Amino acid sequence: MHPDCIFCKIIRGEAPSTMLYEDEQVVAFKDIAPIAPVHVLIVPRLHIPSAAEVTEENTALIGHLIVVAARVAREQGVAERGYRLVTNVGREGGQQVYHLHWHLLGGRQMRGLG
Ligand code: AMP
Questions:
Q1: Which of 20, 40, 41, 87 to mutate to test the pocket of ligand 1 (most atoms within 8 A of CB)?
Q2: What is the pLDDT of residues 29-83, one digit of tens each?
Q3: In the chain, where the domains are located
Q4: Best mutation site among 4, 8, 12, 32 for ligand 1 pocket (most ligand atoms within 8 Å of CB)
């Protein structure tokens, strides 16, 4: 837990969120500034700054995150049409919040990767 991390605060219920899924390892809540009709953040409870800091010890956790993302995609009704899972890493990767997360984006056609 990092005291100044907004996602840690959301995970502990100390900051507001629209929570869609929770288990012992992972939470999923709506992005506050959605860029698609479905924009959900899939977030491990463990504070890992980014995908660059993931270690072998975290491999099961990362696999579980993808399982949760697929479940949330089904629940949000985008599984059949398709969706995008993105994790930004570092400054040029466009990362704003340094607590590992995947963006689940769906409900419109995705284009490009820029
Ligand atoms: P990234 O640029 O990959 O670090 O993405 C961070 C995301 O977190 C952005 O899409 C923000 O809109 C989102 N975000 C920031 N603060 C909050 C918050 N309090 N609740 C929900 N989403 C947030």
A1: 41
A2: 999 999 999 999 999 999 999 999 999 999 999 999 999 999 999 999 999 999 9
A3: 6-106
A4: 32
6-106 to CATH, choices 2.60.40.1120, 3.40.630.30, 3.40.50.10490, 3.30.428.10? 3.30.428.10
Is 101 annotated as catalytic? yes
Cα–Cα distance for residue pair 39/76, rounded to 1 Å:
10
Instruction: Report how far ligand 1's centroid is from the alpha carbon of 80 (Å).
Output: 26
Q: Dihedral sign, CA of 73, 110, 40, 7? A: positive
CA distance 74 to 36: 16
Rg (CA), the chain: 14
Which pair of tokens denotes residue 112?
């490009």
pTM, whole model, 2 decimals?
A: 0.98
pLDDT for the residue 110 = 97
Burial of 44 (C-beta count, 10 Å sphere; 0-12/13-18/19+): buried
